[in-house]
Write a structure and sequence with these properties.
two-stranded antiparallel ribbon, Glutaredoxin, about 200 residues, 6 helices, globular, about 30% helix, 10 strands, alpha+beta
Length: about 200
């Protein structure tokens, strides 16, 4: 039978920072977001100007996603909650979900993003706007339709989250999984110093 102290030390080893390492990279030079026009889940216009003046975390996906999107959005809600312990509410980054499948996403988008956090913003729109924003994010997606009548198709898409500064430039990219405490501290350091360490 394992002694209590040995069991406790074993648990600490499993929960060590190495086990929750953040998979992120700070870009050598900020990457600007090109102009685009989309629509927020509340029906208001959403353009590159809505990324200016504050920090943003942007993730692309689709509302019918069975795993990556709900997992990531739930984790981003937890990260934002952790960040609320580190900074004032008005300094928290906005979370933007770029929905790349507008035919199915638009009717569900408001309820979908608000399920994870009422502060989240879902955006979608015409293919030109979606593609322009996706390109600026250095992301990708592909609708996996098997034919014109395929309504149960999947969407292959990138899973990275972009950290965008108040000048509207990408300064860092993070990949899942997102351990809330460690990721919150990582983002906070980048926001304060421009560096992850």
């Amino acid at each position: 039978m394992m002694r209590p102290l040995a069991a406790f030390l074993g648990l600490l080893a499993l929960l060590s920072p190495a086990a929750a390492e953040v998979r992120g990279v700070v870009l050598d030079a900020p990457s600007p977001i090109a102009p685009f026009v989309l629509e927020a889940h509340d029906g208001s216009p959403f353009t590159q100007d809505d990324l200016a003046g504050h920090w943003s975390l942007v993730f692309l996906g689709y509302t019918h996603c069975p795993d990556v999107c709900p997992f990531t959005l739930a984790n981003l809600a937890a990260v934002r909650s952790e960040m609320s312990q580190l900074m004032r509410p008005e300094s928290l980054p906005q979370i933007v979900f770029l929905a790349v499948d507008p035919a199915r996403d638009r009717p569900l988008l408001a309820a979908y993003v608000e399920h994870f956090d009422i502060a989240f913003t879902g955006v979608t729109g015409a293919r030109e706007g979606i593609d322009g924003f996706t390109t600026s994010l250095d992301g990708f997606y592909r609708l996996e339709k098997k034919g014109p009548d395929d309504d149960a198709y999947a969407v292959t898409h990138s899973a990275a989250v972009s950290l965008i500064n108040p000048a509207g430039e990408i300064v860092a990219k993070l990949s899942p999984p997102f351990a809330p405490f460690e990721t919150a501290n990582y983002i906070n350091r980048v926001m304060r110093t421009g560096q992850a360490d």
